[in-house]
Amino acid sequence: MFNDENNTYHYSYTPNNQPGQSYDNGYYNNNGYRQTQPPYREVQPTKKKRTGLKIAALALCCALLGGAVGGGAAWALMRNGSKVTTQVNVSARPSAEVVLHSVDGNRLMTDAEVYAANANSVVSINTTISGGTNIFGQVTESASAGSGFILTKEGFIVTNFHVVEDASTIKVTLYNGDTYDAVYIGGDEDYDIAVIKIDATDLQNVTLGNSENLNVGDRVLAIGNPLGELTFSMSGGMVSSVNRTINVSGTPFNMIQTDASINPGNSGGPLFNQYGEVVGIVSAKYSSYANAAVEGLGFAIPINDVSAMIEDIMTNGFVTNKPYLGITAGTMTDQMAAQYRYNITKGVFVYSVEEGFAAANAGLKLGDVITMIDDHEITSMEDLTTVKKYYSAGDTATFTIYRDGQSTTVEVTWSAVPQQEQSNLTQEQQPAQNPQYGQGGQNPYYYYSNPFDMFDYFFGNGMFG
In sequence order, which residues have a C-beta less than 8 Å from that of residue 31 and are 6 or more positions away? Predict the structure, then answer.
C-alpha cells in the first residue's frame, strides 16, 4: 500500500494496512529548520566546441550512404534548423507471390496457398428466425449468422444443423460478394449437419479429405465468418485430439479437437488439412468449464462420419438409414429401482413401444431395462444414443435386457427412422415424467451464440459456435 501525506511515504506490509516504516523526505537548512524543497543552486550550461565531432559524424553518414546498395534509404531530416542526412534500413525483398494450386491430395500447401485455393468455396450464411408475436401482436424475428462450404458446383452447401434450424429465410454470401437466397434441403440434429442449396452453377467446390488420416499434431486451418461480420477469416492450429467424445445436452458427438481459433459465426465452416482438403465441419468450442474460462478447445465433426449422410440428405432430404428402435425410454435411477423393486440401478428403462418398429418386433415391452447392446454396456440414455450411431437401419444386434428379475437376450433388427419422425432427431422419445429429463443440468457445452447467432439452447454455459 502506498500513502502520500505531507510528503512522507509510508510502505505498509501488515495485513490490516497499518503503516510500517516511515521515511521523511524533508530537507533541512543550515539553521536546522525543516523545509519541503531542497537547496537550490542554478547551474549554468557549459558550452563546448563540438566542431570536430560534427565533422566526424557527417563523414560517417556520407560513408554509410555511399556504401549502402539496396539495403537502405537516405532520409533528409531538418533538426534544429539544420539539414541532416541519415540512413534507415529498408528491406528490398519483393512481396511473396501466392501460387494458386488445385487441391489434388498430393501437394503439401502453405497456409496462404490453402486459403487461396479454398476461399471461393467458403460461404457466409445469415438467417432470420420468426419468434412469434409480441404484446402488440407484431411478428418478431431474430437474426443469426454462420458459415458453410460449397460441396458441388451446382450449389449444394454443407453447414451445421443448428445454423439453419427453424430459419424462415437463409441468405448465402460468396467470397466475391454475390448473395443468394438458399433453400433448406434437409439435416440431422444428431450429427449437427444440414444441406442447403442456392440457384447457381459453375461454383468452386471443396475437395473432401480423409479424416481418418489425421494425427495429433497435424496442422489444420479453419475458414469462416466469426462474429457474423469478420467474413472469410482464417485461423490455424493443430489437431489436439482425434475421436474425442463430447456430450451436448445428452447427445454424444465424436469430434476432432483443435486449438485453432473458433468463435461465434464459425459454425458450419470447413476445417482443412495441409493438403487443402476438408477433413471436418467446425461445430463447437469450450468457452468455459466449471466457471473457469478456457482457451484453445475447439471441435469439428470428422468428415468421414457424415459424408454418406450428407449424400443421403442431398438425395432424399433426410438420412434414410438412420437406426430407430421405436421406444419411449429413460435412464434407470436408484429411485426407480426402489419404486419397481428391481435389482439393478443402471440401464435404459422402457416406458412404451411403438407397434411396427424394431423394439416391438423383437418383443420388448413396458418395464424392460436395456443393459447391453452387443458388447456395449448401456447405463443411460446417453449410452444408447452413442451406440445407435454404430448401426444402420437393417442391422441386427443382440440386446441384453433385465426382465422379471433376471437378464435375458433378444435379437433386434434396427428399423429406419420414419420420415415424419425426422423432427425428433436427438434420440428416442423421452417421457415427461422421467425425473432425469427436462431438468437441464450443468452441461459445459452449448452451441455458438451471440447477438448474431441464436443457438444457445444447450444451457448457454460455455459451448458456443
Answer: none
Count of CB atoms situated within 10 Å of the CB of 397:
20
| Residue 240 cell numbers, joined | 489436439
User: What is the DSSP code string of 117-184?
Assistant: HHGGGEEEEEEEEEEEE-TTSPEEEEEEEEEEEE-STTSEEEE-HHHHTT-SEEEEE-TTS-EEEEEE
- The one-letter code for the residue type at 411 is E
Would you call 226 helix, strand, or coil by DSSP?
helix
* Number of other residues whose CB lies within 10 A of the CB of residue 48: 6
Q: What is the pLDDT of residues 96-150, one digit of tens each?
A: 888 788 898 889 999 999 999 999 999 999 998 877 777 777 766 678 889 999 9
What cell numbers appear for 390 in the block? Answer: 454404430
Residues 402, 404, 409: CA angle, nearest 5 degrees: 40
Averaged pLDDT score across all residues of the chain: 78
Task: Give the model confidence (pLDDT) of 198-251 as tens digits.
Answer: 999 999 999 999 999 999 999 999 999 888 778 899 999 999 999 888 876 667
Place of cell 499434431: 217
How far apart are alpha carbons 122 and 238 in whole angstroms? 20
Helix then strand then coil, in percent of the chain rounded to 5, is: 15, 40, 45
Give the number of other Cβ atoms within 10 Å of residue 314's Cβ: 17
Low-confidence ranges of the chain (pLDDT < 50): 1-25, 27-28, 33, 36, 39-48, 55-56, 59, 62-70, 423-427, 429-430, 432-465
Instruction: Retrieve residue 296's grid coordinates.
Output: 484453445
Name all domains of the chain by residue range, CATH numbers in brackets. 2-34 (no CATH), 102-321+454-465 (2.40.10.120), 323-416 (2.30.42.10)
Contact between 358 and 416 (Cβ < 8 Å): no
The pLDDT score that the predictor gives to residue 8 is 38
| Number of other CB atoms surrounding residue 347 within 10 Å | 27
Q: What is the pLDDT of residue 71?
A: 58
**402: number of Cβ within 10 Å:** 21
Rg from Cα positions in the chain: 34
* Sheet with 8-11: strands ordered across: 2-5, 8-11, 22-24
User: CA-CA distance, 299 to 313, in Å (whole number)?
Assistant: 23
pTM over 0.90: no
| Nearest to 230, CA basis, from 173, 294, 168 | 173
- Would you call 61 helix, strand, or coil by DSSP? helix
Cell numbers given for 411: 435379437
Distance in angstroms (rounded) separating the CA atoms of residues 216 and 219: 9
Which residues belong to the active site? 162, 192, 267
